[in-house]
Amino acid sequence: MRTQEQALRIYYAAMPDADLQSAAANRSSFLPLAQRLLTEELRKRHLEEAPAAATGVPEHHGVMNVLRHAFRH
Predict the structure, then answer these.
(1) What is the pLDDT of residue 15?
(2) 21 in Cβ contact with 48 (< 8 Å)
(3) 49 near 21, Cβ under 8 Å?
(4) What is the greatest pairwise CA distance in the chain?
(5) How far apart are CA 49 and CA 42, in angstroms?
(6) Residues with pLDDT less than 50, the chain
(7) What is the CA radius of gyration of the chain?
(8) CB-CB contact of 71 with 7 (8 Å)
(9) 38 and 23 in contact (C-beta within 8 Å)?
(10) pLDDT score recorded for residue 8
(11) Full-prediction pTM beyond 0.85?
(12) Cα separations (Å) of 71 from 17, 19, 52, 68?
């Protein structure tokens, strides 16, 4: 079984850049672990947080399937 940290790493790694940046704009509502891992993934990709006006509601259906798979294995 995967840990919460492993699952979040897989989830963030599977997100498109725009969705990751959009999620980062709302990071203050995330748990500290999720905030840290999100920041790590942004840095890994050399991305910055998207401006608040540019964020929208991202579609995560494909990413959710990746996350479900991660928890099953």
Answers:
(1) 95
(2) yes
(3) yes
(4) 38
(5) 8
(6) 53-55, 57, 59
(7) 12
(8) yes
(9) yes
(10) 94
(11) no
(12) 23, 21, 31, 5
- Alpha-carbon distance 4 to 7, whole Å? 5
Amino acid in position 57 = V
- Concatenating the DSSP letter of every residue in 19-58 gives HHHHHHTTGGGS-HHHHHHHHHHHHHTT--PPPGGG----
Cα angle, residue 15 at apex, residues 2 and 6 outer, rounded to 5°: 15
Residue ranges covered by each domain of the chain:
4-72
- The backbone region for 46, taken as left when phi is positive above 0, alpha when psi lies in -120 to 50, beta otherwise, is left
CA distance to 1, 4, 21, 63, 70, per residue, from 16 (Å)? 25, 20, 9, 9, 18
Tally the residues of the chain: 73
Which pLDDT belongs to residue 9? 95
Look at residue 18 and give its three-state secondary structure: helix
